[in-house]
Amino acid sequence: MVAAWLAGAVSRATGRGGGTALPGLLAERIDPDVLRTLARQLPRGAVVVTGTNGKTTTSHMLTGILRRAGLHPLRNASGSNLARGIATAMAAHADWTGRLRAPANTVGLFETDEAAFARVVPAVEPRVIVVTNLFRDQLDRYGEVDTVAGIWREALRVETGRREGAGAGTLLVLNADDPTVAALGSNGTGFPQRSLSLRGDGQEVGPPVVYFGLDDVRWGHEGPEHAADAKVCPACGARLRYPVCFYGHIGHYTCTSGHRRPDPAVRAIRVDFRGLAGTEIMLATPDGELGVTLPVPGLHNVYNALAAAAAAYALRAPLPAIRAGLEAFSAAFGRLERVEVGGRTVFLVLAKNPVGMNEALRTLALDAAPKHLLLALNDLDADGRDVSWIWDADFERLAGQVRSLTVSGRRAEDLAVRLKYAGVLDALLPSPLVGEGPGVRGSPAAHVEPDLARALDGALSQTAPGETLYVVLTYTAMLALRRVLTDRGHAAPYWEDDAR
Ligand SMILES: [Zn+2]
To answer: How many Å apart are CA 224 and CA 245, to the nearest integer?
Structure first.
């Protein structure tokens, strides 16, 4: 096992890749139990965050809250959310004998993707498991949603069963508004509804589930927008009805069999969007109500804040720590990031699947001004090889909203075809930089440039000083663009965010 600690130390000393996955891989080859061995030494146990969208943002928010609650979160790096990345995060704090050298208030805070979840959970034996949502994502890698849900259910059943036997109990923090996720907390005959008591004598009573959800129905509409988003009832298999749908399959659902969305313990009772500046949220928890000014926009970030607040509640963080942690949040790597470049504001948004893309487009719509836009689509392993998902995203929303458009990435041509069919290319607004003179009036500025650095230069040249360039891209395109910005001195390497 010694070689693993050595590998971690060497990686940190050389600074390669910010010390992410490689030494963990070595560690696992040498000792498959390394994850379990290290996790058992975490003084305050571990939290595992999983789901399709929002797990990095939720982990960042939760980190801020837990620090303010007096804990010391030990995290795995962004984008390294496999078992070996988690082993690496802990190996970095272990000595030559494999003993964890961490303060007594250390709590593990690990995000894991859908595929690694079933391996990570039995090894880490988390105190709290947070599930944000479950969407169709990267089908070529993970299989269908129901398959993933089945694997998770099995991992959770084994885990909660063992922990109950040991008298400990893993707490589930689940999105009540996602029927597939909520069903993970159902015992098959319904949802446990007894409230979780974390007060007084320190005895935990009630079932080990904390649901979170959105109660402000003003932001919903009836039924899913697309038939493909409809879900079947986990109890009887009939199609669920949505009196209130917020986005995708997220909302308030019911079934004639009596199955319905569980009542959330931690909920947003009022949400007011303040454009791109942020969001006012009134949270209700069993500990009381709490007004929070979240400094990031978008409904998806309301859900991330809810997930973080519910997890913090499950870990007994006090309300003032929850508020302070959420209000100090700055966007996680690439999820929604602002960079100043030559007097222009560059807004970076990660979108790796149809739901993420639709949320990105919805967030952009909060800025009513005609937009300069750079879209980039890659098809490397980390993006998902199959890019057909772009046909499930609502690019039609952009038609008539865009002043300059640059399309980039390895699959720029596919994306350009999609934008053509969405009516975006034919509805570009006149660009002042292209000119208003005879012959050029109304000339739209649309460019296809697969090279990201050149695409950025082109898009910036269309954006006047003081204006905003919106950049929406897939995962490896985000990495590549961050590298370009970093090389030019505009942004810090992303792993610096995680070294704190
Ligand atoms: Zn039913």
So the answer is: 6
The structure's pTM equals 0.73
Statement: residue 250 has pLDDT above 70: yes
How many angstroms separate the alpha carbon of residue 447 from the centre of ligand 1? Answer: 49
| Helix-then-strand count for the chain, H and E | 15, 17
CA of 241 to the centre of ligand 1 (A): 10
Q: Residues with Cβ within 5 Å of ion ligand 1?
A: 233, 235-236, 238, 255, 257, 259
Catalogue all structural domains in the chain, each as residue range(s) with its CATH number: 44-80+105-327 (3.40.1190.10), 337-498 (3.90.190.20)
Residues 161 and 155: their CA atoms lie apart, in Å, by: 10
Q: What is the pLDDT of residue 77?
A: 73
Using pLDDT thresholds of 50, 70 and 90, give the confidence band for residue 35.
confident
Q: What is the pLDDT of residues 334-388, one digit of tens each?
A: 556 778 888 888 988 888 888 889 888 888 887 778 899 999 999 998 888 889 9
Q: 260 CA distance to ligand 1 centroid (A)?
A: 8
Residues 192, 209: contact at Cβ < 8 Å?
yes
Q: How far is the CA of 56 from the centre of ligand 1 (A)?
A: 33
Give the Å distances, CA to CA, from 490 to 54, 299, 346, 493. Answer: 25, 28, 10, 10
| CB-based contact 223:242 (threshold 8 Å) | yes
Q: DSSP secondary structure string, 113-162?
A: -HHHHHHHHHHH--SEEEE-------HHHH--HHHHHHHHHHHHHHHHHH
Contacts 24+ apart (CB under 8 A), 270-278: 270/216, 271/214, 271/216, 271/219, 271/299, 271/302, 273/297, 273/366, 275/366, 275/367, 276/347, 276/363, 276/366, 276/367
Mean pLDDT, residues 18-34:
55
CA of 237 to the centre of ligand 1 (A): 6
pLDDT digits (tens, 9 = 90+) for 458-481: 999 999 998 999 999 998 998 899
Q: How far is the CA of 253 from the centre of ligand 1 (A)?
A: 10
170 Cα: distance to centroid of ligand 1 (angstroms): 27
Which amino acid belongs to residue 5?
W
Which residue has better confidence, 76 or 429? 76
Residue 186 Cα to ligand 1 middle (Å): 13
- Give the integer Cα–Cα distance in Å for 170 and 183: 16
Contact (Cβ atoms closer than 8 angstroms) between residue 94 and residue 38: yes
Write down the pLDDT at residue 197: 41
